[in-house]
Amino acid sequence: MAVPETTTTEKKSLNFIEQKVEKDLAEGKNGGRLQTRFPPEPNGYLHIGHAKAIAMDFGIAKKFGGVCNLRMDDTNPQKEDTEYVEAIERDIKWLGFEWGKVCYASDYFQELWDFAEWCILNNKAYVDEQTSEEIAAQKGTPTEAGTNSPYRDRPAEESLRLFREMNSGNVEPGKMILRAKIDMASPNMHFRDPIMYRVLNLPHWRTGNKWNAYPMYDFTHGQSDYLEGVTHSICTLEFVPHRDLYDLFVTWIKEWKGDEGDMEDNRPRQFEFNKLNLNYTLMSKRNLLILTKEGVVDGWDDPRMPTICGIRRRGYSPEAILNFIDKIGYTTFDALNDIKLMEAACREDLNTRAIRVSAVVDPVKLVLDNYPEGQVEEMVAINNPELKDEEGNIINENNTHIIKFSRELYIERADFMEDGGKKFMRLGPGKEVRLKNGYIIACSDEKDENGNFRCIEKDSEGNITCIHATYDPETRSGLPGADRKIKGKTLHWVSCAHSIPCEVRDYNCLWTCENPRDAIKQYEKDNGVRGIDAMRPFINPDSLCVNKNAFIEEYAASLPALSYLQFQRIGYYNVDTDSTPGKPIFNKTVGLKG
RNA sequence: UGGGCUAUGGUGUAAUGGUAACACUGCAGAUUCUGGUCCUGCCUUUCCUGGUUCGAGUCCGGGUAGCCCAACCA
After folding, report:
1. Closest nt by CA–C1' to A477
2. Is the ipTM of this complex over 0.95?
3. Could you list the residue range(s) of the whole structural domain that residue A133 is in?
4. What is the CATH number of the domain that holds A477?
């Protein structure tokens, strides 16, 4: 069971949690079983940080022959919704993972309740009727012990009666809570009589009106793990201080269940790794929700969002995301990862995946004066030059498409300079370049009587409106004479008459500062504002650049949404979900290097 | 300030007491019908300080710096 799948790449050392799992399995802990869980709260969409947790929770189960359940942590009905449940399931599947089953914390509400009653009867819990302010005041500070609640030692029967009252719907939220009787002087704040249950008087999207009092995270998670049979409960570092409480509740529930199993070898155990921080990126669900509500972005799947669905729409493949996560690894160090590493991981994946197409995003007309008017040639374009056989030759079968060539073309404005100098390897007067999959062309350096280059047409403001060149008919790509070496680069182009006007959306970081989370927090503190008002100063006004003047070859315009493309010499692009063949829209995933 | 956690090039990670390495970034070069890819080279590392040890990035003590914890959120 403990044999990891052999990877296709060279052997990579196991991360510290994988090593722990391997050891536990070898020692026969939990009967040699491995069971994990991915426990999102369905109160928002999954983001790239969750992808890291998903890759761990599902990935480690897969690697060591265990099972991972998807468990919705739905103990707070006021924030949760089925919309999110569906999105979560969709995103996990898209990433390529499978769960054993879908569970809900709410599946255990009855058992949790019964367990809580047992805690009351066994002097481990009591109903507190103080206000939240009073309770907070008694909690003490990290350096000062708390003080006991006056209700702490009330009779168990009274607590039990009031606890049941808490679920009747007749108790106002905030009037009563159930607390665990632990230690108000503990240096661990979580041990200072933590809240087990609170009254919400709200229906739950799964259990309807059955419950009015709901359990808190700390009184739910470990128990759910225990009841479900989880062996390794893997979470992020901020839960380290909860671990002792997790363990305590697990010992209690084992006692309640009469479970004689060894606490050392037979129980769920919590492990923590560092969560994902990305520079120029804001990760928290709470803040992402604000961005969608305030219309800063176009919704959860806006390509600028760090959500799984946003990144998908941006054009990342699941493999690109997993490639990135594999590169950053799992440790206990609170790292701030460079977004460039994610982009590099994406390029690496898309290089082997994306179909090469031609798109001209800032067009200027190019006329080949010696090319027959009305003539159209069908040129063969390689879809993906990384598809190679064993000898390293590009595979041509099913790996090409046709691009039409004619007398009038568009090229990039930036690919022509009247006076580019020696280092400018593209087109200009007296320069020769190759048109990709086409011909070698040249511009004359002849000047007219006014000293202007004959190959350039300009408008009254001096902007170039048209470039004239001649083509060399012997140099069509694939022909014997085509290999002639020239100084110039190879340019991409589209045929004016055979290209489709399209919309191209380029993206920049949503944030102008490297660590928006901290910057926003600081701004809130300094200026006494919260939410969107603290975010606005750091939002990049140029995060979205819409270009409606681009042209793309016909083949690319016909591709379905979410197709992976490379606009040659520009970047990786993806067909937007709102794109239609008549009005194609493309999202820039990431630029080419350099 | 109490408790917990952490510290390896610019960034992330490896080295599990035995020669500090890998990826990314950056720079330079070669190849190229993409200024991409592929290939080559270069730059830059164990927070400080004591100790244990034949030997310390690793173990221990003391500093320093950062993160988490005082929600009826998870």
Report:
1. B33
2. yes
3. 123-210
4. 2.40.240.10
